[in-house]
Amino acid sequence: MIAYLEGTVLRRDEESCVLLTAGGVGYLLHLTTDGLAALPGAGDTARLFVHTLVREDALTLFAFSSWEERQAFVTLLGAPKLGPKTALAMLGCYSPAELAACIAKEDVAALTRVPGIGAKTAKRLLLDLKDKLVSSPSLLSGRTVPAPSASADCAAALVSLGYGRHEVDEVVRIVFEKEPDLDVGSAIRQALKIFASK
């Protein structure tokens, strides 16, 4: 199974890109909206973690910027009646840690913000995913999820200040890895220092 690819971005569209490897093979990769936005331009090098989905009628590759995001995608696919398109949409709206927090808090409203998920589906997903995500949060984030509400609130505040979602997620992850017990105000201050140093 293909788990990682490195190559040149040949072309991209609204849902996927073609990555040309050094061996001359071009792979069609499906990404989240955030993943596509973070891709370098055509002709530049990209490094992506990949999940290979094999079905009777197709072999499809899904690509992610981090191993944690890939593992979250695999976990989501384990839920009954949850297809890859919806799983990608969920990870396009929320980072793995934020998604785990939504499930832990049984936040139906948060899940219904994902395109294609209504209230009924959201309630079913909460039941299907609670044991998978909440009992093993390290599967999603590579560590214990630190104060999920604090990290989500910190990220929301930074996005409202005009920072991009992808860079915010990365900085918030760094902040809470260093100090998992930070309150929202302190986390925002630490994040702003990191942005200022860039």
Key attributes of the depicted protein:
52% helix; 10 helices; 5-stranded mixed beta barrel; 198 residues; alpha+beta
Helix % is 40-55%
Distance between the termini: 37 Å
3D shape = globular
Individual helix count: 10
Query: Overall pLDDT, averaged?
Result: 86
Reported for the largest beta sheet, the result is: 5 strands, mixed, barrel
Number of strands: 5
Low confidence ranges: 135-148
Please give the radius of gyration in angstroms: 17 Å
Query: Which structural category fits the helices and strands?
Result: alpha+beta
The helix-strand sequence is EEEHEEHHHHHHHHH
Strand content: 15-25%
User: What is the strand arrangement across the widest sheet?
Assistant: 1-2-3-5-4
Characterization of the model:
This protein has helices spanning 33-38, 67-77, 84-93, 96-104, 108-111, 119-134, 137-141, 148-160, 165-178, 184-197; strands at residues 4-12, 16-21, 26-30, 45-55, 58-64. By secondary structure, the chain is α+β, with helices and mostly antiparallel strands. A hairpin with a 4-residue loop joins strand 2 and strand 3 (26-30). Helix 4 (96-104) packs across helix 6, helix 8 (148-160) packs antiparallel against helix 9 (165-178) and helix 9 crosses helix 10. The radius of gyration is 17 Å and the shape is globular.
Summarize the structure.
With 198 residues, this protein is an alpha+beta fold. The protein has ten helices and five strands.
Strand and helix map with partners:
Blueprint lengths: L3 E9 L3 E6 L4 E5 L2 H6 L6 E11 L2 E7 L2 H11 L6 H10 L2 H9 L3 H4 L7 H16 L2 H5 L6 H13 L4 H14 L5 H14 L1
